[in-house]
Design goal:
This protein is an alpha/beta fold and 543 residues long. The C terminus is likely disordered. Bound molecules: flavin-adenine dinucleotide (FAD).
Amino acid sequence: MSDSKPEILLIHPDPHFRRDLAKQIESWCVGAFGVVTAANAGDAMAAMNDMPKGSLELVISARIEHLDLIMAKRGWAALAMMSNEVPDTAEVFTLPLPPSREDLEDLFACWGSARRSEAFAVPRAVTVHRGTASTAQIRALKRLFFLNAITCKWEADGGEELAVMVDGRTVRPSPASILDALGRIPKVDRPPDFPYDLVIVGAGPSGLSAAVCAGAAGFSTLVIENDSPGGKAATSINPIKNYLGFPDGISGVTLSQLAVQHALQSPLVDLRPGIRATSLQVGNPRIDVHVETEEGTSYAVSAATVLLAGGQDPRRLEIMNHEGLIGRGLHYGALKCDQLEEGGRRVAVIGGGDSAGQAALLFESGGSDVTILSRGELSDKMSADLRADVIQEVGDIHEKCDVICLEADKDTGALTEIYTWDERHGLERFKVDSCYVMIGGVPCTAWLRPSGVKMKSDYVITDARLRGGRGRDTLMFATNRPGVFAVGDIRIGSARRVGQAVGQGVAAVASIEKYVRRNPAVLEGGQSPAADMARIRSISGTN
Ligand SMILES: Cc1cc2nc3c(=O)[nH]c(=O)nc-3n(C[C@H](O)[C@H](O)[C@H](O)COP(=O)(O)OP(=O)(O)OC[C@H]3O[C@@H](n4cnc5c(N)ncnc54)[C@H](O)[C@@H]3O)c2cc1C
């Protein structure tokens, strides 16, 4: 690291944009960084040559997706041309044009946390060679990159197969493999059969907040996650405005990234992404959590206690044989990054709640021709303010209609038509290019059914809701199975809010501490950092 002031290099051909953004960055950095601007690759290279060695820390350029914006293309071209010249001590970010305040906040939040974390000390380059990848594969990758705040270069060449490369090494196109190759998730030193004090299933807000507290309480903790760490909060289109401490709201991706970083601060907390919990065997005294890796390997993790924090998956349409359309025009849930893909296309949003309303407005403002198809009336579930905006902005709203069939193009297999039925109009047909389904969620509990964990409507029942569970001995968030607790959206009666999930994660760890004190035999003697009962007993403030 150089002794001179660290530098941020901002490359953009538009002088007004450059000047405004540079001013904004300078005001955020309050003198801690110098901001150097350049109009093109040549200027940028010259500026880099003038900088003291090692001082360049961040390069910001425009992103290519806005193909109609020549400026953005030039910005990207500049970056692509000079990318080999950027020293590997610098992070490179690209921005859509024009960037919104949230885009900039995301960038700085990701970069700020990157600077704080040793895992980011060596920035690495992600390149995708498209090969003959299908649109569905490309779309899935774009969504993965968005949810995990990863920037990459897209190359059209590179052979037949889709290849995701990190630092020139091909990696599996999954969150776990890419995050691992990027060094974002610290390597787990403990062996797979390590006897953990606590295994948390799900790295969403509830599981991650529990991990923070469990690490602080001295529990050796494993968090397993089968998708992108951070959970569903990252999928929110609008900023999350109801989470305490962020009066102007915070983007879901930023909140999720920061939550993962926070949970990983404790040396007692391990996070293994790319792993799915497949069954639970509650023994006496310990619990086996059976897992499967994305490579297909199965093994059991031994735990003193287990916290179920798997949240919800999007609810699927109740129509036959539509799985093949997923990613080929049919999408469960809409992400902010989808807006760029859908400009100028016919988009149907199925659903009548807030998420559907936000998605409809997102696509409408991105220049799509939007149709809303809702089984109920929008007034049933959509908040009044949002509904007023949706009614004003989206011309084509069909309420009280059922989607009964989807049709695909015979050659390409892509979605082309949606058929609906309603009492007033009977059968109707909608020609579409894409369809986003936002009809609520279902709890991720199918894997738990054989375990004997009590559920109602597939949601986990805990504490006072358990029959006879009102006694003073029932711990909060305890399920009917000894040592197994549940928090967040997976529980029956959840408010489905980040704040509630986070609060429950905290409170559940307090319950788990009590459980461990009452049942010391569950701890594996000697091997676990929390096995020292004197230390467990000394945890203050709990009884
Ligand atoms: C589109 C959208 C917008 C939202 N907007 C807001 C908002 O503005 N404000 C607000 O407060 N809340 C909002 N929410 C709700 C909020 O995101 C959730 O309440 C919160 O994320 C719940 O946290 P959780 O930890 O319980 O579950 P989740 O966030 O769902 O996390 C659970 C994690 O567990 C993983 N998992 C599941 N099963 C397994 C398994 N078997 N093995 C391994 N891992 C598993 C999942 O992959 C997931 O990452 C929104 C939700 C959505 C979908």
